[in-house]
C-alpha cells in the first residue's frame, strides 16, 4: 500500500509539473522568445529562443520599468482593401490559409490584431460605389465587393483570430448626399470632392449604423470607425471634403445614432496627415472638435496618417488632450520612397511607423494595403498606381509572395506586443543608435522591440525587475523580445 501511494504521489507531481510547463507553450521560464530581421535578410523574422544568461562587463543596458505606464495597446495591422481581398481570393485556398495563418494566428503566426476596411469603396476598390447609391436609405445594401471579396476574407481571418479589431472608414458619402459647397448647396454628383449636405447629417449617421449592423449580421464586429478618410483631401478617386467644423457637427449626429442603436463602436476623429495638408484654418483639427462638449463626448480620440508633417504632432495633441486616444491608421510604401529597397525601408519604417508612433502615444498602428499584386494593383483610374502592398503577390500565379518592409514592421510589433499590453518606462545607458519601446503584456510577460540603426553589432543587457539577459544585436536590424 505504501509503495502504491508513493507511485500515486509521483504521478501527481509529474502531472503538476506538466501543467506548469504547458502554461506557457513553447517558452520556458528561463528562456527569451525573440525575432530578428537584418537589413540583408540573413536573419529573417524567425522565432528563436535563447537562455536568459547575463554577460559581464556590458556597457549598453536597457532596463524596463513596469511602474512607469503609458498607453494600453489595441494592436497592429494593415488595411484589408477591396484590392487586397481580390488578390487573396485568387489564391489557392491552401496557400491563402497558409498566409493568413502566418499573418493573423496569435499563437502560431505573427498575430496581426487590428485591420482597417473601407465603408463603401476606397481608392483600392474594384469599382466606385457606396452602399446606398440610389437616393433613400431604404435602398441600403452591401455590394458585390463586400459580399464576394471582403466578407469572405474577414470571415477566414476571424476563424484564425476571433479577437481581431476592425476599423471602418468611408472615402465618400453617397453622391446624392453631396453638395458643391456649404453656401450654394448645389447637388454635386461626383465621386471626387464635394461636401456633405447638412440636411443629410442624420441620414448619413443612420447609414453608418446600417453598415455596422450589416457586418454584424455577417458575423463581423466593427470595433471602431472614423467619420471620413482624409477629410482635407479633395483629389482622391473617391473623396469628400469635411473641415473640422463640419466634422464637429456631423459627429454629434453620428454619435447620437450609434448610442441610440445600442452599439459600442468607437469613433476616432480626423484620419489624415500630421500637417493638416498645410491648411491654416485646419491646424489642430481634432482639438477644435474636442472643444465642443457634446461632440467630444462621442469621440474616443483621433487618427493620423504620415503623408505630410512630422510625428511630433502626436505628442502635441496628446499633451493638449491626454484623456483622448490616438491611432495611426495609414501609411504606404511606393515608387516615390523606394518602397522595395528593403535595406532602406526596414530601418526608416521601423523608426517612423513602428516605434515612432507607439512612442508618441498611439495605441494602434496600421499600414495601408496588406496585399497588392506584382503590378501594384488592382487599382482604379484616379487612385494610386505607384503603391506597393505590405506584401506583393505575383500576378502570374497568385502564389509567390514578396514581403516588404511594412509587413516586417507590423509583424515585429504584433509578435511580442499583444492586445491589452501597456507601454512601460525604459532607461537606456550607452545606447546610441538604438531605438526601442518596452511593454508589459496582460499575461504579465514582458516585451521589447528594438531597432539598431548603426552599422555595428551591439552587445546589450536587457532587464526588468525579475529577469536579466544579454544579447548581441546584429548591425542594421530589428529585434523583438518576449519573456516571462
UniProtKB/TrEMBL annotation:
PANTHER family: GLUCOSYLCERAMIDASE (PTHR11069), LYSOSOMAL ACID GLUCOSYLCERAMIDASE (PTHR11069:SF23). Belongs to the glycosyl hydrolase 30 family. GO terms for molecular function: glucosylceramidase activity. This is Glucosylceramidase. GO terms for biological process: glucosylceramide catabolic process. Residues 74-414 form the Glycosyl hydrolase family 30 TIM-barrel domain. It comes from the Bacteria. The keyword Coiled coil does not apply. Gene3D superfamilies: Glycosidases, Golgi alpha-mannosidase II. GO terms for cellular component: membrane. Residues 1-23 form the signal peptide. It comes from Sphingobacterium siyangense. It holds the Pfam family Glyco_hydro_30C. SUPFAM superfamilies: (Trans)glycosidases (SSF51445). Keywords: Glycosidase, Hydrolase, Signal. The keyword Hydrolase applies. Residues 420-481 form the Glycosyl hydrolase family 30 beta sandwich domain.
Amino acid at each position: 500500500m505504501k509503495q502504491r501511494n508513493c507511485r500515486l504521489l509521483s504521478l501527481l507531481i509529474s502531472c503538476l509539473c506538466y501543467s506548469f510547463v504547458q502554461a506557457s507553450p513553447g517558452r520556458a521560464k528561463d528562456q527569451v522568445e525573440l525575432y530578428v530581421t537584418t537589413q540583408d535578410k540573413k536573419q529573417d523574422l524567425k522565432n528563436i529562443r535563447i537562455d536568459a544568461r547575463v554577460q559581464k562587463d556590458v556597457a549598453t543596458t536597457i532596463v524596463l520599468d513596469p511602474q512607469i505606464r503609458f498607453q494600453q495597446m489595441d494592436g497592429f495591422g494593415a488595411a484589408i482593401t477591396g484590392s487586397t481581398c481580390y488578390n487573396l481570393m485568387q489564391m489557392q485556398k491552401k496557400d491563402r490559409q497558409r498566409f493568413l495563418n502566418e499573418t493573423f494566428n496569435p499563437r502560431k503566426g505573427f498575430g496581426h490584431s487590428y485591420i482597417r476596411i473601407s465603408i463603401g469603396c476606397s481608392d483600392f476598390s474594384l469599382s466606385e460605389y457606396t452602399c446606398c447609391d440610389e437616393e433613400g436609405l431604404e435602398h441600403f445594401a452591401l455590394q458585390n465587393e463586400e459580399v464576394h471579396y471582403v466578407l469572405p476574407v474577414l470571415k477566414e481571418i476571424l476563424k484564425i483570430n476571433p479577437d481581431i479589431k476592425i476599423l471602418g472608414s468611408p472615402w465618400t458619402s453617397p453622391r446624392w448626399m453631396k453638395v458643391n459647397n456649404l453656401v450654394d448647396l448645389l447637388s454635386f454628383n461626383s465621386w471626387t470632392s464635394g461636401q456633405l449636405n447638412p440636411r443629410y447629417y442624420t441620414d448619413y449617421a443612420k447609414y453608418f449604423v446600417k453598415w455596422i449592423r450589416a457586418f454584424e449580421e455577417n458575423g463581423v464586429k466593427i470595433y471602431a470607425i472614423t467619420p471620413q478618410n482624409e477629410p482635407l483631401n479633395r483629389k482622391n478617386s473617391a473623396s469628400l471634403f469635411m473641415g473640422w467644423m463640419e466634422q464637429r457637427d456631423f459627429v454629434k449626429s453620428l454619435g447620437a445614432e450609434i448610442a441610440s442603436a445600442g452599439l459600442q463602436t468607437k469613433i476616432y476623429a480626423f484620419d489624415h496627415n500630421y500637417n493638416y495638408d498645410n491648411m491654416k484654418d485646419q491646424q489642430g483639427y481634432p482639438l477644435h472638435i474636442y472643444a465642443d462638449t457634446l461632440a467630444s463626448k462621442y469621440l474616443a480620440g483621433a487618427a493620423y496618417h504620415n503623408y505630410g508633417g512630422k510625428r511630433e504632432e502626436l505628442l502635441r495633441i496628446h499633451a493638449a488632450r491626454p484623456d483622448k486616444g490616438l491611432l495611426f491608421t495609414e501609411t504606404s510604401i511606393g515608387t516615390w520612397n523606394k518602397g522595395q529597397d528593403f535595406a532602406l525601408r526596414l530601418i526608416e519604417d521601423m523608426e517612423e511607423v513602428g516605434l515612432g508612433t507607439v512612442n508618441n502615444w498611439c495605441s494602434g498602428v496600421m499600414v495601408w494595403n496588406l496585399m497588392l499584386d506584382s503590378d501594384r494593383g488592382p487599382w482604379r483610374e484616379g487612385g494610386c498606381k505607384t503603391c506597393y502592398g505590405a506584401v506583393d503577390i505575383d500576378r502570374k500565379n497568385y502564389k509567390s509572395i514578396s514581403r516588404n518592409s511594412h509587413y516586417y514592421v507590423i509583424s515585429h510589433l504584433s509578435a511580442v506586443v499583444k492586445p491589452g499590453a501597456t507601454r512601460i518606462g525604459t532607461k537606456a545607458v550607452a545606447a546610441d543608435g538604438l531605438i526601442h519601446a518596452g511593454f508589459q503584456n496582460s499575461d504579465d510577460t514582458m516585451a521589447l522591440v528594438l531597432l539598431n540603426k548603426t552599422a555595428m553589432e551591439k552587445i546589450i543587457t536587457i532587464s526588468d525587475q525579475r529577469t536579466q539577459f544579454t544579447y548581441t544585436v546584429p548591425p542594421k536590424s530589428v529585434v523583438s523580445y518576449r519573456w516571462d
